[in-house]
């Protein structure tokens, strides 16, 4: 029974939360190299938690009812604008929502029946999601397979009369490199098209890395032709999840991101974000985190991150069979294997208590593992490299993931819509990936190997069924 017949005590509930989280990846300490961002400073986490709880029940739906929302958002957005070349912003729930609003604003500003986005193949899938929801086509441009950066001339060639927005990344997530923003923005401006910089990862990191001595090229709203930029504060701003900002150079374009409706007899609707009712908790947490760290704190974290990234790259270079992809310019590092199955390596590292994020091959880029270096990584970078070296040797001894004969062909030809979730879960369990409740954490090398062998559309269909099976009741 999901709903208890009588009320339960707080102590009982918290004990069950602890039980339910027993197999979760840890959110502190740096052993999880994706999804979570850790300063290693307990006092900052405490300040954010307290402010989050204080604002938990405040509703961002109506800022006239809760003026604290306006005051905090103005400060948070203002801090981001000060760091990223000015502009006029909106506080959102994350990078995907920030990108969604940037695409909506561009679409509504263009006012065309047909519309497309021009973006690198390395651009975040949030753009594809926004395009899907907003009825916009995607024109993907290849990247240079040595640098993993998009070429401005390829972007220029892809722009046509239906293009409403051009995208560059600072950095792109897969390999941590910064697209040539100035050049891409210039070709977009020459064509009369807005240019969005996806700095969801780097927006609140790159300026501190630059101040710490890194060679970071111009990438923000100070660059001619850049019309909007997204920056996540729940990444390298280290605030609790649900915190991002999208900035527009022109306030008129920001207004295109808004939604208003008066065509009904109820209360008036005006939303700056995709969501209507939403807790101000994330806003309070972001505000408190920025205040608790300040410029000095972020600069110190930037220096530690820069040092840790350099140590990680140097350490990976001497592990036999591993190679870093490209020349990472931020703190995102991806490495591939020569004679080592990186998916097996990831399973070996997971068994040793470390999570390394697998990335499938695509558009000529090989399968690889991704590491996000954060403020807490420096203290554990030697331990991480030791685990990677041990896991690489173990993966070499094990060899590549062994797929049952004909499995890839079977999956590719399977009519996934003709089977229910229970049947899909049974099929998964038959190849060693048991998604059913109580089965524990499966090794993922076989799953990733199958996905890697499939075309993108088939991968997506299988992933949807995986998720559906995991949540089946």
From TrEMBL:
Its cofactor is pyridoxal 5'-phosphate. GO terms for molecular function: aromatic-L-amino-acid decarboxylase activity; pyridoxal phosphate binding. The modification N6-(pyridoxal phosphate)lysine is found at residue 235. GO terms for biological process: carboxylic acid metabolic process. InterPro entries: GrpII_AminoAcid_Decarb, PyrdxlP-dep_de-COase, PyrdxlP-dep_Trfase, PyrdxlP-dep_Trfase_major, PyrdxlP-dep_Trfase_small. SUPFAM superfamilies: PLP-dependent transferases. Keywords: Lyase, Pyridoxal phosphate. Belongs to the group II decarboxylase family. Sphingosine-1-phosphate lyase subfamily. PANTHER family: PTHR42735, SPHINGOSINE-1-PHOSPHATE LYASE 1. This is Glutamate or tyrosine decarboxylase. The lineage of its organism: Bacteria, Bacillati, Actinomycetota, Actinomycetes, Streptosporangiales.
């Amino acid at each position: 029974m999901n709903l208890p017949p009588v009320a339960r005590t707080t102590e009982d509930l918290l004990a069950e939360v602890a039980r339910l989280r027993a197999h979760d990846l840890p959110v502190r300490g740096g052993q999880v190299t994706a999804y979570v961002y850790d300063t290693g400073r307990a006092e900052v986490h405490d300040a954010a938690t307290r402010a989050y709880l204080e604002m938990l029940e405040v509703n961002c739906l109506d800022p006239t009812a809760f003026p604290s929302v306006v005051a905090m958002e103005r400060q948070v957005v203002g801090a981001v604008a000060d760091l990223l070349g000015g502009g006029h912003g909106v506080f959102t729930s994350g990078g995907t929502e920030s990108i969604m609003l940037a695409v909506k604003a561009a679409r509504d500003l263009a006012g065309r029946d047909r519309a497309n986005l021009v973006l690198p193949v390395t651009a975040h899938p949030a753009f594809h999601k926004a395009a899907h929801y907003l009825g916009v086509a995607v024109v993907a441009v290849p990247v240079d397979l040595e640098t993993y950066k998009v070429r401005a001339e390829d972007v220029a060639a892809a722009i046509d009369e239906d293009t409403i927005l051009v995208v560059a990344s600072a950095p792109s997530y897969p390999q941590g490199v910064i697209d040539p923003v100035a050049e891409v923005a210039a070709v977009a401006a020459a064509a009369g098209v807005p240019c969005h910089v996806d700095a969801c990862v780097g927006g609140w990191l790159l300026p501190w890395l630059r101040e710490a001595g890194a060679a970071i090229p111009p990438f923000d709203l100070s660059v001619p032709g850049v019309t909007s930029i997204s920056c996540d504060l729940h990444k390298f701003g280290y605030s609790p999840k649900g915190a991002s900002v999208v900035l527009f150079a022109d306030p008129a374009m920001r207004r295109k991101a808004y939604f208003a409706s008066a065509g009904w007899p109820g209360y008036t609707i005006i939303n700056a974000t995709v969501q209507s009712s939403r807790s101000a908790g994330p806003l309070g947490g972001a505000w408190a985190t920025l205040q608790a760290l300040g410029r000095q704190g972020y600069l110190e974290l930037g220096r530690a991150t820069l040092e840790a990234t350099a140590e990680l790259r140097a350490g990976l270079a001497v592990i036999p069979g591993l190679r870093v992809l490209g020349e990472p310019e931020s703190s995102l590092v991806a490495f591939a294997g020569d004679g080592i199955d990186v998916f097996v390596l990831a399973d070996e590292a997971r068994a040793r208590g470390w999570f390394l994020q697998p990335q499938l091959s695509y558009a000529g880029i090989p399968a690889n593992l991704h590491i996000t270096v954060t403020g807490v990584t420096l203290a554990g970078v030697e331990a991480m490299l030791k685990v990677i070296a041990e896991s690489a040797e173990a993966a070499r001894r094990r060899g590549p993931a062994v797929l049952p004969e004909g499995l890839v062909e079977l999956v590719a030809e399977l009519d996934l819509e003709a089977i229910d979730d229970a049947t899909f879960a049974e099929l998964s369990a038959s190849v060693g990936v048991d998604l059913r409740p109580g089965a524990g954490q499966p090794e993922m090398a076989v799953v990733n190997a199958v996905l890697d062998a499939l075309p993108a559309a088939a991968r997506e269909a299988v992933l949807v069924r995986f998720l559906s099976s995991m949540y089946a009741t």
